[in-house]
Write a structure and sequence with these properties.
- The structure is a single chain.
- By secondary structure, this protein is of the alpha/beta class.
- It folds into two domains: about 70 residues, no CATH class; about 150 residues, Vaccinia Virus protein VP39 (Rossmann fold, 3-Layer(aba) Sandwich), CATH 3.40.50.150.
- About 40% of the residues lie in helices and about 15% in strands.
- It contains eight helices and seven strands, in the order H-H-H-H-H-E-H-E-H-E-E-H-E-E-E.
- Strands 3-2-1-4-5-7-6 form a seven-stranded mixed β-sheet.
- It is globular, with a radius of gyration of 19 Å.
- About 30% of the residues are buried.
Length: about 250
């Protein structure tokens, strides 16, 4: 069930700031009906896909079942800007990385908003130096840790895979050459904050950088933004950026 303190009260506070008292009182009167309708409608998208898919069955994990944001316990105040858990389709990840000639063994892979760890496991099929997931929902982080432990693959090339339970806006960006992944995990404000953190780290420690942004709703990684990157691949599903010159 939706949690009142985490879903309704912040909206009331925002309405008071932007609409005033009388308009907020009117919206509160309609609130229970409106909120329940929105919640039930949004839940349908998550409940529809609840069975384990081929990836899970093949590797002995559970990464398919979607989870609504209000059904998660999140300590960070940034929870209100996040989205629920929605797994990355394997074909999108594989298509984005196909044809790249970079040496993956030189790169640390980081998934910001890593959920149950599906992308971490897919990335482990490539010879990255290290793979890190950053997830601030403790329930999803716990599932990711279990999935990492249970993952079965005879072709896995990186066994150094970890999940960290943290707000990724507070996560220290490693100074290693990086391959950054995000599946539109949050709002423009939080995604922009992450982009600025990466940009500062890159300015302090110039190095190879890749960013794979799936469902790129915002343009924070586009050329001219905070990061000195160029777009090398893109379609309606993802955009891939790098500072590596041809």
């Amino acid at each position: 069930m939706p949690r009142v303190a985490k879903t309704i009260l912040p909206k009331i506070k925002k309405s008071l700031r932007t609409r005033g008292l009388s308009a907020t009182l009117w919206r509160c009167a309609l609130g229970p009906y409106t909120f329940l309708r929105q919640y039930l409608n949004s839940r349908k998208q998550y409940i529809t896909y609840s069975d384990r898919n081929e990836f899970d069955l093949q590797h002995g994990v559970e990464t398919t079942k979607r989870v609504h944001l209000s059904d998660l316990e999140i300590d960070s105040p940034n929870w209100i800007y996040a989205d629920g858990y929605w797994p990355t389709p394997p074909h999108v990840f594989e298509d984005a990385l196909s044809g790249l000639t970079t040496k993956f063994e030189n790169l640390v892979f980081i998934d910001f908003g890593s959920g149950k760890g599906r992308v971490l496991l897919m990335a482990s099929e490539l010879p990255f130096r290290k793979i890190i997931g950053v997830e601030f929902a403790s329930e999803l982080h716990a599932i990711a840790e279990e999935n990492i432990r249970r993952y079965k693959s005879s072709t896995q090339k990186c066994s150094d895979v970890t999940s960290v339970c943290a707000d990724f806006t507070q996560f220290p960006i490693p100074s290693d050459p990086l391959f950054v992944f995000l599946y539109n995990p949050s709002s423009l404000e939080i995604t922009s904050a992450l982009a600025r953190n990466i940009a500062k780290s890159l300015a302090d420690h110039p190095r190879e950088m890749w960013v794979l942004y799936v469902t790129p709703f915002y343009h924070v990684f586009e050329p001219g933004g905070p990061l000195p990157l160029r777009k090398v691949k893109s379609n309606s599903k993802y955009a891939l950026y790098t500072n590596v010159t041809e």
